[in-house]
Amino acid sequence: MPNASPCNVVVLLSGSGSNLQALIDDIQGSESAARICAVISNRSDAFGLERAKAAGIATHVLDHKNFPDRETFDAALMALIDSCQPHLVLLAGFMRILSGAFVRHYEGRLLNIHPSLLPKYKGLHTHQRALDAGDSEHGCSVHFVTEELDGGPLVVQAVVPVRVDDTAQSLANRVHAQEHQIYPLAVRWFANGDLRLGSEGAMLNEQLLPATGHLIRT
């Protein structure tokens, strides 16, 4: 995708929006081809909405509690997203399991960031689980979203050493710092036309990425 034509991005979130802020800062501080055109939350009290408003980005709230089931909510969410005409949809702490119809609709243009070195520790409480397992390394992953929870081809992973005195919180803090590096990186790749989802997996500069994605060690 040429830089002259902005890559419209919609961000979905449910909480504080720290990854959104990292994306905003990266786009504003560089010649990025990406443009965040809307931020959508299922929670009206999500602080990420305030971050978006401060940056002049349109915000929308779609409360899942107002819908009878997941499929109806997802259909309304798709209609709202599509009205923004995005090239890319980002999950940034969006605490909803998405239906297969939603994931298929955005196939190849839906990215997620997860606080573990996938395929390890899908789901929640990843930092404590890494400590409980005695892992020497932990980290975070950006991946294309598929119907498998926290599955899908990996794009980039940042590896963080686990320290002997780490708590779940201290480990989380270091992982979060790396999330704020690799999510903007993946978005830049996509917006520049360097990253795409191929039939065999994630492709970067027309080269198939390894199963681990692009690895960054800190």
UniProtKB/TrEMBL annotation:
Gene3D superfamilies: Formyl transferase, N-terminal domain. N(1)-(5-phospho-beta-D-ribosyl)glycinamide binds at G17, S18, N19. One of its GO terms (cellular component) is cytosol. The keyword Transferase applies. InterPro entries: Formyl_transf_N, Formyl_transf_N_sf, GART, GART_AS. The record marks D150 as: Raises pKa of active site His. The active site is at H114. (6R)-10-formyltetrahydrofolate binds at R70, M95, R96, I97, L98, N112. The keyword Zinc does not apply. Keywords: Purine biosynthesis, Transferase. Residues 8-187 form the Formyl transferase N-terminal domain. GO terms for molecular function: phosphoribosylglycinamide formyltransferase activity. Pathway: Purine metabolism; IMP biosynthesis via de novo pathway; N(2)-formyl-N(1)-(5-phospho-D-ribosyl)glycinamide from N(1)-(5-phospho-D-ribosyl)glycinamide (10-formyl THF route): step 1/1. GO terms for biological process: 'de novo' IMP biosynthetic process. It catalyses: N(1)-(5-phospho-beta-D-ribosyl)glycinamide + (6R)-10-formyltetrahydrofolate = N(2)-formyl-N(1)-(5-phospho-beta-D-ribosyl)glycinamide + (6S)-5,6,7,8-tetrahydrofolate + H(+). It comes from the Bacteria. Its EC number is 2.1.2.2. It holds the Pfam family Formyl_trans_N. PANTHER family: PHOSPHORIBOSYLGLYCINAMIDE FORMYLTRANSFERASE (PTHR43369:SF2). Belongs to the GART family. Catalyzes the transfer of a formyl group from 10-formyltetrahydrofolate to 5-phospho-ribosyl-glycinamide (GAR), producing 5-phospho-ribosyl-N-formylglycinamide (FGAR) and tetrahydrofolate. HAMAP family: PurN. This is Phosphoribosylglycinamide formyltransferase. It comes from Pseudomonas turukhanskensis. The gene is purN.
